[in-house]
Each structure stands twice: as C-alpha cells, then as structure tokens.
Design brief:
By secondary structure, this protein is α+β, with helices and mostly antiparallel strands. Helices cover 21% and strands 33% of the residues. It has eight helices and 21 strands. Strand 19 and strand 20 form a beta hairpin. It is globular, with a radius of gyration of 22 Å. The termini are far apart.
Length: 334
C-alpha cells in the first residue's frame, strides 16, 4: 500500500492502517539499528547544485547497474577509503579538488566517465588518455576466464595508456562467419595505481542508458563474475560491503553495520518472480548465524549452507518485499 489517502477513502485508509499495524515493529526496529551503510558509493556533492533536484542522478551506477545486479552500494557523501563508482554524468557536479580526492582512493569508472576525466585534465591520474572508440567494430571481449562474444556499440579507446597500468580484459574484432582468428583491438579493462595513492579501475564499455542490446554488455553472468573479482581487486581483496547477491535475478542489495556492531544485509527483489533460495558471495570468512527481521520486529533464525565463499539462504524473497537480515561471522572460522 503506497498511495496517498484522505478521510473520504475508507477502504484505502483501512489498508494503509492495516499495513502499518502489521509492520510497526519492523519499522521501529529498523529505526533503532542506526546503520552505517557500506558498499560501493555513488557520490553526491557536499553542496548540491540547484539543478540537481533528485537525491540520485537520472543515470548512475546504482540506477543503471548496481541496484539490479545485487552488489551492495549506497548513494551519498563519499568517506575516506570508500570505493567510488562514477559515470560521465556524475563528473560535472564535482570540482577538481573533489575529483582528486576520489582519485586518491579506490575509483571505478565506465568508459564514458574515463573520457570525461580526461577532458577535465586527469589522464595521468587514471592511467589512460581515454577517448571515444572510433576503430573497428568490437565483436568480443576476453576476460581471461571467459571469451564473451557480442558487439560493444559504445566504448572508450584505452590504447593510449600508461605502461604501468594492468590490462585485465581485451577487445577483439572478427568478421561474422570468418574462419580467421579474432583480431586484437585494445584493452577492454585496465587498472592503474597512480601517484596520489589511488587505484583506478576503468571499464571501457559505456554503461547503457536504455533497455536494449547494449545492456548485454553488462547484464551477463560472465560480466557479473568479472565485476565481482574486479571490485575486490580495487578494494584490496575484499568486496565493498560484507556480502553481495550472486544469483541471476534482478536484486537490490545494501549492507552495513548497526550501532552495536551487528552486520546487516538488505535485499529487495525487483524481479517479477519470488526468489526462493538466495545465493550470497561472502567476504569475511565463515558465517556463524543468519536471522531475518519479521513484521512484528522480532528476529528469526534462517537455515543456510556455506560452501567456501558462497552462502545459500533457505528462505524466499518476494517481489518488492524488502528482506532484512542480520548475521554473524565465526571468529574461529576461516
């Protein structure tokens, strides 16, 4: 029940009251947790421009990808050490000093954002003189573990890069039906440690702005597995946030730590179908317990199984019915 009611709408007023009555304890418990959220950060400027009306940008990493791919993230002021994720449209809201602060820490850019950073004079700091791709058609990308065919329509040219940068994927061209070997074109992903002390990850493909074929550049199982590894690499070996959803359903994942030190995980299923049996990737070791918050504000144990760094929760997450969990790691586990 989400619509606004007035005294003359008796049925909807009752539905509104019934919903709040059912979840009163749930809402009160959440308010008392006082959670410090973590994960990747879609940064907001400390001083919001007048034209920036909405609390998030029309097109950012959260809206375009993270909020559906299950990686934990938050939108807000970036703290020291946060992994900041930016697209081209974000850059205009920050002055040079603020961009330098991001460059001094872990930073994730898509190709369009890299081009914008170069335009602002930061080619040296991101490790590449990125510019819009104008070469042969990119027909495949090799991640190292997976060779993914499929045209990349919009990307940055990362060939003019610092030799100290690491090439983490490769773009190729092949004529359809040809028996010739694929022709190497350029780096598809690079990572660079700059003189400011930062680590910059640049993914050449532009983040798509619409539902279409370009979405398959990012919305594939292989790309998600690649990004999980890359997010860990840019963050010193650990996933930003303690867990992420590693299934294939559209899922929003957010995480954080409550005031008493308890680890908290939010899952919001944005698929049309219920997700029954939730797979989570873990950074932190062996999980000791999992509990789920009920509507009355009480916590109930959830059965789970952990195999290496994958935890499967034996519970269902219904469409647009946010699920809140708290969990503990075994201090003696590995």
């Amino acid at each position: 029940k989400i619509w606004i009611t007035n005294p003359l709408e008796h049925r909807s007023r009752k539905a509104y009251r019934d919903m709040f009555r059912e979840y009163r304890g749930y809402i009160e418990t959440l308010a008392q947790l006082n959670i410090r959220r973590d994960g990747l950060v879609v940064p907001l400027p400390k001083k919001r421009p007048l034209r920036c009306v909405q609390p998030v940008y029309p097109h950012d990493w959260g809206v375009a990808y993270l909020g559906r791919a299950g990686f934990p993230y938050r939108t807000g002021i970036a703290r020291k050490g946060d992994v900041v994720a930016m697209l081209a449209g974000d850059v205009q809201y920050f002055n040079d000093d603020e961009l330098k602060q991001f460059l001094a820490g872990p930073l994730v850019l898509d190709g369009a954002a890299a081009v914008e950073f170069v335009r602002r004079g930061f080619a040296k700091e991101i490790g590449v003189n990125a510019k819009p791709w104008s070469g042969k058609t990119i027909t495949a990308e090799d991640y190292g573990k997976v060779y993914r065919g499929g045209t990349v329509n919009s990307a940055a040219d990362l060939r003019d890069r610092n030799p100290k940068s690491k090439e983490l994927s490769k773009f190729y061209h092949k004529v359809s039906g040809s028996k010739d070997a694929p022709e190497y074109l350029a780096p598809g992903t690079i990572m660079f440690d700059n003189e400011l002390g930062g680590k910059v990850l640049v993914l050449a493909p532009y983040m798509p702005r619409y539902v279409g074929l370009q979405q398959y550049v990012y919305y594939t199982e292989a790309r998600k597995e690649q990004l999980a590894e890359l997010f860990k690499m840019v963050n010193g070996g650990k996933m930003p946030g303690r867990m992420y959803y590693c299934g294939d359903a559209p899922m929003m994942c957010q995480s954080g730590v409550a005031a008493d030190g308890t680890d908290i995980l939010f899952l919001d299923n944005v698929d049309l179908d219920t997700v029954d049996g939730v797979e989570l990737g873990v950074s932190g070791g062996k999980v000791k317990s999992f509990e789920r918050l009920a509507g009355d504000g009480t916590w109930h144990s959830v059965s789970f199984k952990q195999v290496k760094d994958i935890v499967t929760l034996y519970t269902a997450v219904e469409t647009l019915r946010p699920a809140v969990f708290r969990f503990k790691f075994d201090p003696n586990g590995k």
